[in-house]
Amino acid sequence: MARTKEFDPDAALQSALELFWRRGYEATSMSDLVEHLGIGRASIYATFGNKHELYLRALDRYQESCDPQLLRELSQPGPALPSVRSVIRRFAAESADAGRRLNGCFVVNTAAELAPHDPAAARRVEHSWDHFETLLHSALTRAQAQGELGEDRDPRALARMLLVLMQGMRVVGKASADPARVRDAAEQALTLLD
Question: Could you report the per-residue pLDDT of 142-151, keeping only the tens digit for each?
Answer without folding.
Answer: 999 999 999 9
